[in-house]
Write a structure and sequence with these properties.
Blueprint: E1 2-11, E2 14-24, E3 29-34, H1 40-48, E4 54-61, E5 64-65, H2 71-77, E6 79-82, H3 94-100, H4 105-109, H5 111-121, H6 123-127, H7 138-150, E7 156-160, H8 168-183, E8 187-191, H9 195-201, E9 204-209, E10 212-218, H10 219-224, H11 226-232
Parallel strand pairs: 3-8, 3-9, 6-7, 7-8
Antiparallel strand pairs: 1-2, 1-4, 4-5, 9-10
Adenosine-5'-triphosphate binds at residues 11, 14, 16, 34, 36-42, 52.
Length: 236
């Protein structure tokens, strides 16, 4: 389980996150919703050890304290991030991108098994191992980005705006793929603008407003909540 307890992040004088507490269990999909600048990316970056701000509070994965650990050690403990904009290497092939995802000791041990698992999850990638990623469609590049993160053999996969720039059809495919990641027993924590499609596959969600977690509920309840409908689902 990934647990953030009372996490506060400051960029100089600016508090981007204030006393945020968020939990994600294995085999669970959790969505974080919130307006631009609310602090959503900051939360994911703090958990991954790549936040430029000062992070305080408690961040634990399977009991291991992540706070202060360098990003590569955090990957080793079992937390992978698919950053906003995907972070793939466009000049390298699919296979090379996937291999680069298996750099941690934890991943290298089982690299062949993990690669098979990624190919089972995304059969298209197994047909395109030699394709240069920059020549792929946005949806395919997103598969590579998720596949690469999966190569680190995570227990928790975090994603920052994974559906950004994808058509509604490709977004649907993306969310179905994330549901399959969950079925592998992996916990999924994502920040999403697409509240409707992400809540449809999620178990729970959190709303962040002005650096604070203001609401937490099951995805089903959030979808029924009039305030959530008005702010995030375009209803009302
Ligand atoms: P968006 O949906 O627009 O990406 P967000 O909810 O992910 O928004 P964050 O990126 O977490 O928001 O940013 C929260 C606040 O912290 C914003 O006011 C932002 O300008 C500020 N911020 C983010 N990164 C830095 C940084 N490296 N230095 C200074 N301020 C930052």
């Amino acid at each position: 389980m990934l647990e953030l307890n009372n996490v506060t992040v400051s960029y100089g004088q600016h508090r981007a996150l204030e006393n945020a507490s968020v939990k994600v269990s294995k085999g669970e999909i959790v969505v974080i919703l919130g307006a631009n600048g609310a602090g959503k990316s900051t939360l994911l970056k703090a958990a991954s050890g790549i936040c430029e701000g000062v992070v305080a509070g408690e961040i634990r994965l399977e009991g291991t304290d992540l706070l202060g650990l360098p990003a590569n050690k955090i990957v080793d403990v079992g937390l992978a991030l698919v950053p906003e904009g995907r972070g793939v290497f466009p000049d390298l092939s699919v296979r090379e991108n996937l291999t680069l995802g298996a750099y941690s000791a934890r991943a290298r041990e089982d690299e062949r098994v993990t690669l098979e698992r990624v190919f089972t999850l995304f059969p298209k990638l197994s047909e395109r191992t030699k394709q240069i990623v920059g020549t792929m469609s946005g949806g395919e590049q997103q598969m590579v980005a998720i596949g690469r993160a999966m190569m680190s053999n995570p227990t928790i996969l975090t994603l920052d705006e994974p559906s950004l720039g994808l058509s509604p059809l490709l977004s649907k495919e993306l969310f179905q793929n994330l549901a399959r990641v969950k079925d592998l027993g992996i916990g999924v924590l994502m920040v999403e603008q697409n509240a409707k499609q992400s809540l449809a596959i999620a178990d729970r969600g959190y709303l962040i407003e002005n650096a604070r977690v203001v609401h937490e509920d099951s995805a089903a309840n959030l979808m029924r909540d009039p305030a959530v409908q008005a702010a995030y689902l375009g209803v009302g």
